[in-house]
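We store sequence, tokenised fold; for instance:
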Amino acid sequence: MAALREETDPEIERVAERVQWVGIGQLGKLIRFFKSEGVERVIMAGQVRHVQIFSGAIPDARMLKMLLKLPRRNTDALIGAVAGELSSEGIELIDSTWFLKDHLPQPGVLTRRAPDSRENRNIEYGLEIAREIARLDLGQTIVIRAQACVAIEAMEGTDETIRRAGQLAPGRLTVVKVAKPFQDMRFDVPVVGIPTVAAMLSAGATCLSVTAGKTILFDREEMVRLADKNKIAIVATEQSELSVSATPKSPG
């Protein structure tokens, strides 16, 4: 496997048969490794924080050439361009949830407590905002209180967005985490887990809405158990409720 030096836990070497470490900007080295191993299909696992583009990492010639072609450097553009470079070398980037289908929730309430009327109003309003920001490829998380937007995720990640909302307007917050209307399941798929619920507890958030079928729930049983213990409602919302008037982009 290939592991990003800036992101991957070194413990990976204890479980992987072989690990090739590459820097965040070493696209050429990554491709050479895959080709030397006869790799034809790859899958992304784990997180690459968007702030890494400002980390001071020095891109190699292959990465620099790719970056110079990009009119913007949001998540879809960056990782989509990497997928395109891989494809040009005969290496297919596949659905990142290929082995995680049982971690994608079906529509409905996942906890003992369902959202109350206040939280449902916040979810509805949060989805309205999601429709507007989805076309801009901004963050996936919106935090609402009393049908007012408290925080929108940028590069800091879901948990930090929730904590920031807790600092601005603590208590009675509703967290709405969405997939994009035309979510490319090869990368940047929404993920929630125990740390998400822990961040909600610190912020005083009482409800979490995620996109059904397109959000990965890690440690689901433990996550739901923690939410139930603290009377937090978690609901998976139909993707159709996030639809926007737009044309889906072709992969890569």
